[in-house]
Amino acid sequence: MNTPDIRIAPKPFMDRAKFPYGFRKSGDFSISEADLLTRYGNTLMALESETLAPEGDDESHFVAFIKGQVPAHNSLEKAWQKYVQLARGKRHFYTLHSSASNQADYDDDYVSEEYDVAG
């Protein structure tokens, strides 16, 4: 898709709290998504928080998208949607260890003297 007509922020957008090594190295975004977020992120954040008024059609569409009135229709809005979901949503944590509730499955009556091999 073509580049949306949204103002480019003077400073690159970074979220060091959720993505300490940057968007590219997080493994969550493609290179093009990371570049879009870095280039337009501060503007999108200001539009979302309403500290910046939308100027063009694309910025007005983005504000409507943020409010849930329209679906995402360009790559920038889809990248922002992905960023918001990852940065503000719950992260799932998976472990290879069993939970403490499974400890009841083991035999508590086991005594090592019953199976003394050396004796």
From TrEMBL:
Matching InterPro entries: DUF413
Superkingdom, taxonomy of origin: Bacteria
Pfam families named among the record's database cross-references: DUF413 (PF04219)
Family of the protein in this entry: Belongs to the MaoP family.
Protein name, UniProt field: Macrodomain Ori protein
